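WARN retry 2 of 3 for item q-0093 after timeout on previous attempt; input resubmitted unchanged.
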Amino acid sequence: MITSICMGEQEDQIYVINKLNQLMTIKFSYDKDRSSGQDGPKIKPLHTAFHSQCITGMDICLRKQLIVTTSHLYINIWNYATKSLEISHRCQQTDEPAAVAFHPSGFHIVVAFGDKIVCMNVLSSTLKEYSPQLQLKGCKEIRFSNGGHMFAAAVNLGAIHIYNFYTQECPTNMTTKGHNAKVRCIDWYEDDMGFTSCGMDGFCFFYDL
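OK item q-0093 returned
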């Protein structure tokens, strides 16, 4: 379904917005002598295909010009230097990503779903899960340490779990329970010896690991 339509100044392109909020273009021609067997004009994205629903997570890679975003059933990786979509990964119907973090190297991402956390390799044109899933429910915020050897995952009740990225372990003494409401953001210290968290309860906590 088309929700908006207009013609370009040169009258050779038609621009439309569909019900998924995608900006599309169609080449327009006044030529009436085309043979009946010729294919008609094709509709294609004007720039690139964007998310059609609310973005639930986003993170920027430290060492590459990449951004990862998550939305309903999709994980997209963008190159902000070339302004292009490099990878669009569709999740299973039962999985809806809620948060995402980009490893500083740009070769891995960690994605939170409703009842699990999944680690994925970033390949040339796709994403591939490569390790056992971590059973953690209600994770809404993930953040890698600057060195990439740890990541913090916050759940709905305000607890923050610190995982070793390479072993997938989370010792009991690496779980914090300072907030009593949803954690909105996590920021690691430059030396990765601790982090700061802010929650919807109005508090900011500073943790020393």
